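Holo model, cyclohexylformamide. Inputs:
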Amino acid sequence: MKAAVLFEPNAPLQIENVSVRKPQSHEVLLRTSFAGICHTDLHYMEAHTPYPMPVVLGHESSGVVEAIGDEVRYVRPGDHVVTCLSVFCGTCEYCTTGRPALCFDPEIKLPPGVSERLEWDRPGRIHTFMNLSSFAEQMLVHENALVKIRDDMPLDRASLVGCAVMTGYGSVVNTAKVGPGDTVAVIACGGVGMAAVNSARVAGAERIIAIDMNADKLELARKLGATDIVDPMDGDIVEQVLCLTGGGVDHALDCLGSKRTAEDAFKMLAFDGTATLVGLFREGETIELTGSAFLRERKVQGSLLGSNRFRVDMPRIIELYMQGRMNLDVFISQKIRLEDINDGFAAMRDGKVLRSLIDFGPSE
Ligand code: CXF
Ligand code: ZN
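Output:
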């Protein structure tokens, strides 16, 4: 099968012949339908966090089950699925207390460099990315990295739910627990931030302030639920938010993941407000917060892929889409072939697109 391989940091991906072995116990072989290009792929491509290479990146995908290994009861060939990098064991303390996204059982969630699901006929190993490797025509995954979805859900929209939409929705609903009447600010309206804006509306937030440097994204955010927009070109974003709200927001979500944006998220909080850090920081980056601000019960917390319980959350998001309450259509900026994946990364670097989807073509 064809797969896009990253041989070294910052190099263009190369299309290579790679194979997957037969599914073993608890493993599922998928025919990939669509794979989104996420900023996390770029983050690892640029080696802001090291990852063993060569590697097949990609982690936001939908597909159709082709074959199953022994013991697999959850899916059958022909089922439509969405993948999730939050593969869970189901038995550890995190899993059994309702926080499966934090599961780190190394036998199920194989750490970088341990997974051996991909093979090729060259010397040396080819690594799997985050237990998925979606930039490939087929994926071999643990059954607990999948959620079954309804057959009438379009597989292109479904793939987005595998990362960006789950992360945005989950950070609002699961991590921040935004409720009716709350005031919410979302910093950075890429795929994750845009989904957070839309989810804050679904959650009943009264005021939703979208913050981004791109005017088109701010306009789209308005369509998805933003009641106010803030452009950093018009002045300090903290000042603008404090002015709009007369004292700050209940929730600020930093969907970028940088020192500046995380600190700004904290600074724009009202008393008792919570900053939720959603975006992926560069390895080792630190933030500074003013200690006395905590006296007014302000809080800061992290969120990992929307604190997901993805087998429950993803079908719920899909229902919201089918009911017309979540908009996933606008996320798809372009569909491209696997061969054009480097153009997809270039478009993301330029900030031109919300999502480029690799279209693997019909599965039947
Ligand atoms: C990722 C960020 C890196 C850790 C796993 C979750 N989120 C989205 O791509
Ligand atoms: Zn992602």
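The first strand starts at residue 2 and ends at 5. Residues 310-322 form the longest helix (13 residues).
Archived with the compound record.
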